[in-house]
Amino acid sequence: MPAAPQLRAPAPRRRHGTAARPRDGDHVSALIRVHRLEHPFGLHYLCCATWGACYAVRFDLVVFFAIAANFLVIVSGNPLNALADVRNDAATREKRHLVAAVNEIGRHRVAALTAAEMVIALAVATIVSWKAATGVALIILLYLAYNLEPLRLKRRGYAGPVALSIAAGLLPSVIAYSAAGGQPEPAIWLVFVGVCALGTARALWWAVPDRVGDAAVGSLTPVVLHGKQHALSVAARITVVGLLLLGGGLWLRYGPWWALLGVSVSATFLLARELPTSKMMLRYGMTLVVCATAVVASIPLLA
């Protein structure tokens, strides 16, 4: 006698216009993308958070708290930027994955996540010292001013890349250096300001592939405002100034050979400035930047 056919309950229907619930792995991937932690960006943020302490040549628990606060506040700016730049990135083919990540997590959740990370970073910095807390607060203010109206420094010419470089480059290095007991010395300031100038130049170069999306939504970045060639010319001049400042500071503190090493590795970024897409510029250019920052950070430890 044949067996009776097994009856199965029909699969629940999804309501029209609703999306399937993302899997946990999708959420993790979206969080990594919205924080821009793909390789080599995570290493770059860690270098930015850490290398200032190398110039005071001291690492203890307080310094590690300062580095943690630096890393968290640097990374917290990325979800904010992804949220603020949804319209820009939607018009830029190579950045649409950021829009997808924001939509997958949810815009309100991204905003809440950004706020929570900034508050935690400020709390950790408060454990270090009032100076570290002040530095982290300034970074937060710069990120807010860069991304949000009414200031929205991103669309205000050269103020945008300068603000980004101060927030992600100069201030974290000063915070780590101060936490490690570093004293204000002219040579160290030359090194820090030189690295900040190099970061400003890189931000200008990396804005070139985004010019179509930025122009489409009226973001007056230097590339949109003055044209590609003018922005690249200014970036080249800022790079020269940054290399001179960096080299001068290293020469005064450690001698000409260490200065030559620091300038040489920092100039290797120029090899990646003419790559045709933002993906290639960021992947290969950022790898060169990470290597250069690691070498510059190691100079006081080796000299």
Q: How many DSSP E strands? A: 0
By secondary-structure content and strand pairing, the structural class works out as mainly alpha
CATH topology: Farnesyl Diphosphate Synthase
The first-level CATH class is given as Mainly Alpha
**In percent, how helical is the residue content?**
over 70%
- What's the pLDDT, averaged over the residues? 85
Largest sheet: none
Enumerate how many helices there are, as a single number.
14
Strand content: under 5%
* Termini gap: 89 Å
Radius of gyration: 22 Å
Give descriptors for this structure.
303 residues; Farnesyl Diphosphate Synthase; mainly alpha; globular; single chain
Question: In words, what does this structure look like?
Answer:
- The structure is a single chain.
- This protein is mostly helical and 303 residues long.
- The protein has a single domain, classed as Farnesyl Diphosphate Synthase (Orthogonal Bundle), CATH 1.10.600.
- The chain contains 14 helices and no strands.
- Helix 2 (41-54) packs antiparallel against helix 3 (61-84).
- The longest helix is centred in the last third of the chain and has 27 residues, at 228-254.
- It starts with 23 loop residues before the first helix and ends with a helix.
- Residues 4-20 have low confidence and may be disordered.
Secondary structure layout:
Elements: H1 24-34, H2 41-54, H3 61-84, H4 86-90, H5 96-105, H6 107-128, H7 130-147, H8 159-179, H9 186-207, H10 211-216, H11 222-226, H12 228-254, H13 256-267, H14 278-302
Summed up:
With 303 residues, the protein is an all-alpha fold. The protein has helices at residues 24-34, 41-54, 61-84, 86-90, 96-105, 107-128, 130-147, 159-179, 186-207, 211-216, 222-226, 228-254, 256-267, 278-302.
